[in-house]
Amino acid sequence: IACRASPSTGFLRKHNICMVSDFFYPNMGGVESHIYQLSQCLIEKGHKVVIATHAYGSRKGVRYLTNGLKVYYLPLQVMYNQSTATTCFHSLPLLRCVFVRERITVVHAHSSFSAMAHDALFHAKTLGLNTVFTDHSLFGFADVSSVLTNKLLTVSLCDTNHIVCVSYTSKENTVLRAALNPEIVSVIPNAVDPTDFTPDPSQRPPDRITIVVISRLVYRKVLLVSNENMILNIRIL
């Protein structure tokens, strides 16, 4: 999300941004950490950021995280795999209340799997707000789940202001699935801060290479499969 300079003052405009997704803490995953870290960076830039997600068990209402990050845990019913039902109507009063109360100027929805993300895009357009969508996963084109999701994505993104993908492969996949103009799709690769994962060189075995793979074991993610007996002197964790 870029700051726009005012033509009269020359100062960068500060936005009130609402991140919306079914997937956020205390649930764990790449989308959850992406939303949290992006929100913290935007707060450091001077923007106001709030997050809207569904309630997780007893975690309901409003909670505050680091740097005053405000999270709305809305009372929406989970349908499958931490995703709510896509009806548009049941989430309208709740999301509209958040957008109006926080004076939101940009709605940033995350993940094609998230029904709340699709609902938020519809409601934001109704309120005349700017919208951004970030796609985190790769989808197929043949199975029933992918066909239905792709049709919904085509409708959701038809007039979204900008789309972000986490890789160039993801961009090509999203452009094909949603019939998008590639010019409105940007690529911002996922990354980690290597200083947070610096190993102790003194503990490194001199005769073996150790590779650490951090990933969910699902089909659409990149999965490294190896046989330690076939690859000599390499240990994979």
From TrEMBL:
<dbReference type="GO" id="GO:0017176">
    <property type="term" value="F:phosphatidylinositol N-acetylglucosaminyltransferase activity"/>
</dbReference>
<dbReference type="GO" id="GO:0000506">
    <property type="term" value="C:glycosylphosphatidylinositol-N-acetylglucosaminyltransferase (GPI-GnT) complex"/>
</dbReference>
<protein>
    <recommendedName>
        <fullName>phosphatidylinositol N-acetylglucosaminyltransferase</fullName>
        <ecNumber>2.4.1.198</ecNumber>
    </recommendedName>
</protein>
<keyword id="KW-0328">Glycosyltransferase</keyword>
<keyword id="KW-0808">Transferase</keyword>
<dbReference type="GO" id="GO:0006506">
    <property type="term" value="P:GPI anchor biosynthetic process"/>
</dbReference>
<comment type="pathway">
    <text>Glycolipid biosynthesis; glycosylphosphatidylinositol-anchor biosynthesis.</text>
</comment>
<dbReference type="InterPro" id="IPR013234">
    <property type="entry name" value="PIGA_GPI_anchor_biosynthesis"/>
</dbReference>
<feature type="domain" description="PIGA GPI anchor biosynthesis">
    <location>
        <begin position="54"/>
        <end position="143"/>
    </location>
</feature>
<dbReference type="Pfam" id="PF08288">
    <property type="entry name" value="PIGA"/>
</dbReference>
<keyword id="KW-0337">GPI-anchor biosynthesis</keyword>
